[in-house]
Amino acid sequence: MLAAVALYAAFALMLEDMRGQEVLPIGRSGPAHNAVEGDLTVQLRNLERQAGVRRTL
What we know:
Order of helices and strands: HHH
Number of helices: 3
Structural class: mainly alpha
Shape: elongated
Radius of gyration: 15 Å
Number of strands: 0
Largest sheet: none
Strand content: under 5%
Distance between the termini: 51 Å
């Protein structure tokens, strides 16, 4: 069962990458859905608090 879910997710993500749009549903919700479907302002919100971002000296 786990292998079937992993194959489905891999195939769905591969098709999405090739076509540039969601083809098969993979159940994104919350921040993951906003990151994919939202615009650039949604993706850059709270960027200064993300891991790996340093304050300027």
